[in-house]
Amino acid sequence: MATAQPTEPDLLRWATAGSVDDGKSTLVGRLLHDSKSVLADQLEAVTRASCGEGPDLALLTDGLRAEREQGITIDVAYRYFATPRRRFILADTPGHVQYTRNMVTGASTATLTVILVDARKGVVEQTRRHAAVAALLRVPHVVLAVNKMDLVGYEQSVFRRIAEEFGRIVAQLGIPEVTAVPISALAGDNVVEKSTRMDWYEGPTVLTHLENVPVADDVADGPARFPVQYVIRSGDVRLYAGQVAAGALRVGDRVTVLPSGRTTTVTGIDVLGAPAQLLRSPQSGALRLADDLDVSRGDLIVPAGALPTVSRDVEAAVCHLHERPLKPGDHVLLKHTSRTVRAVVRRIHGPGRLDLNEIGQVSLRTAERLAFDRYEDSRRTGSFVLIDPADGATLTAGMVGATAPGSPDAAA
Question: Helix, strand, or coil here: 157?
Fold first, then answer.
C-alpha cells in the first residue's frame, strides 16, 4: 500500500511586511537566533560581517551584497526553520513601495503575514498598503508586530493607540483576524521569550502565535480541483498526472473534464506508483478514468456536481510586476494552473494603464475557454499570471473576481 503524502498540518507558510527600517529582517534574525535555528558557522559569519559588538541579526536574511551595503531588503528572502511544534517557511519581503511586487510574491502563498510598525512612527502609508495587499491576497491570519517598543519606554499607551488604529483599518478591508504583539526585535522582547519589561501584555509571543495558529488549508474541504500536468501512456492505459489544487478525489467519483465538459468516473488512483483510494490536496498523483476521453495538459478535472466558472471573459484584480506598463489592447499569454492560453487586455479600470508595482482592476478576453474559481474561494484555481509572448517575461499577477483597493468597486 502506498504511503500517502503528508497534508502538512505542521507546516506554516508566512511572510513579513512593513515600511522601511521597521525591523523586519531583525525580527526574522532574532526569531532564528533565539529559536536555535542558526548554525554555528552562519552565526560566526554574521558576527564577522557586523559592525557592532554583537551579531547584526538582520544579516541572517539580508543575503544580497546590495542589501548589506544599502542596509535595506531588496529581494524576497526565503528561510526554512523548525521548532519541536511546527515547521516554517518564511518570506522576508522588502518595505520600499517600489518593491510592492515582492510583497505580493511572498504573501501569495502565505497563511499568515506579520506586518511590522515602528512604535515611534505608528501606522504609516506603507502599513495601510501592506494591509490592503494582505486583504487582497486573502491571507487568513495577520499579526501586527509593534516593534522598537524599547525606544518608547515600553509604554502600553503607545501600543494600544497603534493597535486600535490598525484595527480600524483592517475592519474596513474585511480582514477577519488580527493579533497585535508589542515587541523589540533588537532586544528580543516578546519575539521568542516573554518580555519582563512589558508585564502589562498578556498575549502570546510572536513564536508562540506562529506555533499555534491554525494552518488548515482553506480549500482542503472545498470542491476538488485537479489540473492535469502530464498524460502518462502505459500500453492501452492512460493516466492523468497532476497535483490536487483543492479538495479530494476518490475512486468511484463522477467527474467532469473541463473545458470540454465530458463526464466520466475515476476508476483508479496511483500515488507514488502504487494504488490508492484517495487523493487529497496538496498531494500529487495520477488518475485513471473509465472512458477514453481526449484529456490533455491544462485540462481541469472536477466533481460533476461542483463545476467552476467556464468562460473566455475574466475580471480580476492584478498587481503589475514588470517595468513595461500594461495597457488596453496588449496581447499576452495567460497562465492558469497548468494551462496557458492567448489573451488580450480589454480594459484597465481607472487610470487606463498599470505601471510597475501598481494594483488595479482589469478585464481580459482569452482565445480559449478557461475553467476558474473566484480567488476568494480558491487561491490556487482563482489566480493567474500574464506573460509577454515575445520574451516570456512575467508581467502581471492576477486574482479572479477580486476587487483592487481603491477601485470604484472596492468597499468604502
Answer: helix
Q: Within 13 Å, how many C-alpha atoms sit on residue 264's CB side?
A: 18
With contact defined as beta carbons under 8 Å apart, do 381 and 306 qualify?
no
Q: Using one digit for the tens of pLDDT, what is the confidence trace for 114-145?
A: 999 999 999 998 899 889 889 998 899 999 99
Q: What are phi and psi of 407, to 5 degrees?
A: -75, 160
Take residue 168 and report the three cell numbers written for it: 480600524
User: Does 282 have pLDDT greater than 80?
Assistant: yes
Contact 224, 249 (CB under 8 A): yes
- Check whether 347 has a pLDDT greater than 70: yes
Q: In the numeric block, which cell numbers belong to residue 193? A: 521569550
Report the alpha-carbon distance of residue 319 to residue 185 in Å, rounded. Answer: 31
What is the C-alpha separation between 70 and 68, in angstroms, rounded? 6
The three cell numbers of residue 134 are 494582505
**Amino acid making up residue 40:** A
Q: Are 41 and 166 in contact (CB under 8 A)?
A: no
pTM comes to 0.80
